[in-house]
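User: Fold this; tokens only.

Assistant: Input:
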Amino acid sequence: MNMTVEQVMSVELVTLSPNHRVYHAMDLMDAHQLRHLPIVDEERRLRGVISDRDVKKLTHANFNTEEESAQERLSLLEEVGVVAHQEPLTVSPDTELSEVAELMLKHKVGSVLVCGTESGELVGIVTRADLLWVLCQLLRPSTFSPMSKSGEETDLKS
């Protein structure tokens, strides 16, 4: 069974523009319970991605001096376009999920961004959670109803 990215990717994306500040990224990650935020330009072309780990690196948990604390406050004002990964892993909607899983394992990342083949426009994201959802569906006994990605059971007949 060959499944493609298009079958499981999330398409309702929360994004940032390159000139948003790190504190905007933190707020959005908290509000939407996200770990990765794509950064796009006005045409929705991918310009980078910022992760919760990137934010944590900028905002150290333990500060020993006032100078370090001031440095943290300044880092929150950095533009995400400056601190983001400029060349994140991308795939097209027709990429097989097995290839995506291999990429994520090889590069030790929690998500892969999906760009349209013609336009280069960001069209989706595949996360570890999406791949686990697929695994759950494949491992479920056939007597059970499939679950939606939100964890609720769904009826395939409707």
